[in-house]
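Justification of resources, computational component.

The compute hours requested in this renewal are based largely on the per-chain cost of generating structure records like the one below. Each record pairs the submitted sequence with a full C-alpha cell output. That output is archived, and it is also reused by downstream analysis tasks.
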Amino acid sequence: MAADRATELSLALAQAVSGDYHQLLVHPNVDTEIANDKDEPRRALRQLVRGRYKTLEDAPALDRDLRAALKDPEPGTHDWYDAELLAAVHADAVHGLVTEDAGIHRRARWLGLEDRVHKVEDAVALLGQLSFSRPSLFVPSVDDRPLHSLDLADEFFDSLRGDYPGFDDWFREAARNGRRAFVVSDPEGELAGICVFKGPDSEIGLGRRPGKISTFKVAGEFRGSRYGELLLKVVFLVAQGEYDSLWLTVYERQHELIALLERFGFFHYDDHAGERRYVKQLVPGDAGHTDLSPLDYHIRFGPPAVRLVDGQVFVIPIQPGFHEGLFPDAPSQQMSMITPRPFGNALRKAYLSRANIRSARPGATLLFYRSEDHQAVTAVGVLEDSMVSADADQILAFVGSRTVYSAEEVGIMARQGDVLAFLFRQDRFLEIPIRLHELTANGLLAGVPQTTVTAKSSGLEWLSSRLDA
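The structure output for this chain reads:
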C-alpha cells in the first residue's frame, strides 16, 4: 500500500473511532515488537503514535488448543506475537483486529475468524457502515464495458502489468478482438475493480463447457466495500445455465484472492506454467452429492444451488426499506448493481429480527418475503450461522458489516430483548416473485407472514419444482 494511501486510511480509522461508541486498543505485545525495531527513526515514530492509544488490559493468553491450531509457534517469535493478537479476538476480548499483516489474515482463516480480522480499509468501511442509520442514496455504477474504453495507462493496471509480462500486448489484442469487462467504478468514476470473463475455454480439460475468467482484480482501497464478492456475483449470474464450470489462474502469493475464491467454492485443481488453476463446479451432475451438507452443497455448486430440508425452510418478511438496503441489485429495485455500503454488495449478508425461531441450522433455505408493497418472495438465501443475544456488542461482533442495521439500531433492538441474527449467503433473485396467493394455494404458508415462520411441509415439493432445486 502506498505511503500516502496508508496515511489517509489511518487517519480515517482514527476519525471513525473518535466518538463515544468505538474504542481503539493496542495489544501489550506491540510494545515489545516496537522495542525490537532496529530502525531508530521508525521506532521513535511508532512509539509516538502508539502512545495515543490505550492498552488492552489482561490480554488473553494462548491456550493449548489455539496454539495447536496455529501450528505451535515458538514463544518470542514473530509468529508467537501474531498468535497472541488472534487470541484476543478468539477469546472475545475485542470485537476485531485491524492489521495489514497477510500472515495474520491467513491464520485468521484457519481459525474461522476472517470476518473479525480486518485490513485498515475494511475497518474504515465497517465503522462507516455502523455509523449511519440508513443506506446512502448515492449509488456508484458497475458496467459491462468494452476493453478499448478503459485507460491502459491507469495505475490500477500496474500490479497486473508487474505480474504478467506482456500484459499490455494481451490487453490491446483482447480489445481489438472485442473483449469486454465487468467494471466497478468508484464515486468519482475511477476504476475500482475489473473482471474480464473470456467465456468458453476448454484448455483446462474439465467438463463439457468450462468458462474462463481471464482477469480479476479489486483495487486495495476498495476491498472493504466487498467489490470482489460483487464481481463474483456478476460472473455467477452470467455463467448460470451457460457453463458447467468456471476456472482461472492465480499465483500462490495472492492469498486474499485465493481466500475469496475458496470461500465461494473454487478449489485448487492443478498447477500449470508457474500458476495455480482454480476451478468452480456449477452443475452437480448425476452423483447427487448426498455426502454434502445443504450449506456445503450451496458453496460447492452455487449460487444458485439449494437443497430443501423439511423443517429447514423459513419465510422471512422484510420491509421495503430494509429490502432495498440488503438487496440493492434486486430486479424490482431498478437500481445500479452496487451501493457504497458493504452489506449491499456482499454475497454473504446478515439479517436481524425479533423472531422466536431457534431451530434453524446451517444450510437452511431462507425465503425473503417483501412485505407491504410486493407481498411476495423476491430473494432466496442459504443460512451460514445464527445466534440469539440481547447483547448489542455481541451481535455487532457476530454480524460485522453484513447487516442493514446501524450500531444504534442494533442497540435499540437489543434493549428490547433477544435478537435473532442470521448470517446467510445470497442464493438468487426470483425473476418471477412468488406472490402470497401462490404461497398459500400450494400449501407453503397458511397466511400473511408477520414474523419469520417455518414453511409447511405440504408445500416443499411444489417449492422444489418452483426453484428447480
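Residues 132-140 have pLDDT under 50 and may be disordered. The first strand starts at residue 25 and ends at 26.
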